[in-house]
Amino acid sequence: MKKVFLYIVIMLAVSLISSAQTVTELPGNNNLYNTQEKSFHSNIINDNFRLYISLPDDYEKSDKKYPVLYLLDGDIAYGMATSIARYLQFGNNIPELIIVGIGYGALNRSAGNMRKRDYTISVKRGKPGTGGAPKFRTFLKEELIPYIDTTFRTNPGDRTISGYSLGGLFAIYTMFTEPGLFNRYIIGSPHLLWDNFKIFNVQEDAFKKLDDINAKVFISVGSEEDEEKYFNPIDEMVTRIEEKEFKSLKLDAKVFDGGTHLLCPPEALAYGLVSVFSKEK
Fold this sequence. Notes:
Helices cover 44% and strands 21% of the residues. It is of the alpha/beta class. It has a single domain, classed as 3-Layer(aba) Sandwich (Rossmann fold). Strands 1-2-4-3-5-6-7-8 form an eight-stranded mixed β-sheet, sandwiched between helices. β1 (35-42) and β2 (47-54) form a beta hairpin. α5 packs parallel to α6 (194-209). It is globular.
């Protein structure tokens, strides 16, 4: 009986030891070109982000510094962006870039909730956990961008942000509230409707305070997008920016014929990259 009991104790101990796992950072996804994946903890937001980072082909063989493209919604946009960027680089339409996708490590409802937490510009009634755009902007400025600039050979004076829908709302919010953080903006179908079009109040305050915005800006929308939610407010925002006539702001607005909200992300990114990196005539 004692032998049986001792055997059970030993087997239980072995079972407990074998079930203890060490959690390690996942290796880069081999299906994503030239990609490093990192878990990045933000003390400002008190949460972890998944970073997808692509370096140019000749990065290890050169001492050049590169522009950086920061992608919102990195979990879904990063693979698309790296493929589009390589096509455009083959055609000499854009320079070689360091691409940084900012994601949450998943494409699920919880990630959607975190998008609303980080990209929305105000706390909307009935939507707790929203309105975190100011904090997310501070995370970019004080934590993520310094990390990328000190870890890789970047050109700190050449940063692009790309955002679509809620990400586009955050991008345009950043342009109005801290325009020097990026000098190129790719803003696809921004969700300006949020919290009863609060972004227009942000825009009016910015126009009173700012003498100039030194940036190249691309804003797009699909012709078949909902008029109330997207087409009309985006058209109004573009008109207001154009009428302000900032001396150093170069604005390119485009309507994708036949485009719907979920059809246009690749077009917004491709045309946006070419636009913001086009050489001045």
